[in-house]
Amino acid sequence: MRAAIINSPRFLSQLLSPTKTNTNTKFSSCFPIRSMSSEADHVLNKPRLVIKKVLAKPQSEGAGATVRRSIGRPELKSLDPFLMLDEFSVSPPAGFPDHPHRGFETVTYMLEGAFSHQDFSGHKGTIKTGDVQWMTAGRGIIHSEMPAGEGIQRGLQLWINLAAKDKMIEPRYQEIQSKDIARAAKDGVEVRIIAGESMGIRSPVYTRTPTMYLDFTLKSGAQLHQSIPESWNAFVYVIEGEGIFGSMNSSPVMAHHTLVLGSGDGLSVYNKSGNSLRFVLIGGQPLNEPVVQYGPFVMNTQAQIDQTFEDYRYSKNGFEKAKYWKSQPLG
Questions:
Q1: What are the average pLDDT values for consecutive 10-residue runs of the chain, which has 331 residues?
Q2: What is the pLDDT of residue 315?
């Protein structure tokens, strides 16, 4: 998984005493994604419009790394159930050394290059271009995420909140290689279906918090009409190119912007440019629960955050292995 982004430098100095826990599972979790209709030519009754646009601005994170954060910035602190979205761009020796998580999931999607991860339960591996790691931190994980090659390693990391009933479950991973991600194509539109369903094809990835995660590429002149469950919150992150989202009369939006979508039953997208457009469409069922966050700890009350600090400091209640663990140098 990509290194947990710790929002506060003070938190790093207070907490950085490795700890982490998890169950390593190859691409099979426990709660099925909810079915949803999604065809590239599906007729939408009420297309969603863009109600907020946020530019993901570069900022320093981890150890010498740079990320472009959109969700999690003051302009867009969260979008239930989503807590953070970063586009990371990292070259060695920078990276995200040992750090903890509790109370949510992280989804790391490699766009270019490779990242290696290790945790305090012995889980380790490398995700490469097009691969996905879906980590449920649950009651506690400590891990490191470091670039696994020369040059720039680039990807997205999304944080998804867990419901109160799931915050203290045992950690686990789903790891999906690029070759195993479901794909579909029609009329100049290609999609990689990381979670959810599009063009009648459903991802086998299961999500505890119901989520869709679709990576679309539209050729010049192509258009898309994608269904989204009406009760869900949803957003777009533009990776490359420029496109028109929502209304055909809207202004084009370029790379590195997050677009929050309003109510409706789906999204219409038009590529009127001369180049390809690539973006991710992400949606999820709101939890509608209180959120108290301190860096990489996300709970429902301040008392639970205080308890998490105590658990972390004294290596207990999910952080037992933290006391003696430290990640090892790669290579």
A1: 37 37 35 35 86 96 94 96 97 94 98 96 94 97 94 96 98 96 97 98 94 98 97 98 96 98 98 98 98 97 98 96 87 60
A2: 96
Contact call for residues 114 and 153 (beta carbons, < 8 A): yes
* 320 appears as a binding residue in the annotation: no
Instruction: Calculate the alpha carbon distances from 207 to 65, 158, 284, 297 in Å.
Output: 29, 13, 10, 20
pLDDT at residue number 63: 93
Looking at residue 206, the DSSP 8-state letter turns out to be -
Distance of CA 309 to CAs 19, 101, 105, 144, 315, Å?
12, 11, 19, 19, 10
Does the annotation list 256 as a binding residue? no
| 307 contacts: CB under 8 Å, gap ≥ 6 | 317
145 is in an annotated binding site: yes
Token pair of 166 as six digits: 């799931």
* Distance from the Cα of residue 120 to its chain's centroid: 22
- Residue 37, both tokens: 């209709």
- Given the structure tokens 């949510």, which residue do they identify? 104
- Is the separation of the CB atoms in 113 and 154 below 8 Å? yes
Report how far apart, in Å, the C-alpha atoms of 22 and of each of 50, 69, 209 are.
Answer: 38, 26, 18
Please check if 175 is assigned to a binding site: no
- 94, 215, 287, 263 alpha-carbon torsion, rounded to 10°: 130
For 129, the token pair is 């271009």
The reported pLDDT for the residue numbered 154 is 97
* Residue 270 tokens, joined: 């038009």
> Is the Cβ–Cβ distance between 234 and 282 less than 8 Å?
yes
Q: Rounded CA gap, 201 and 232, in Å?
A: 20
121 C-beta neighbours (distance < 10 Å), count? 17
pTM (2 d.p.)? 0.88
Report which of 282, 48, 309 is spatially closest to residue 158, judged by C-alpha positions.
282
* Residues shown for the chain: 331
Please report, as a single letter, which amino acid is at residue 62: G
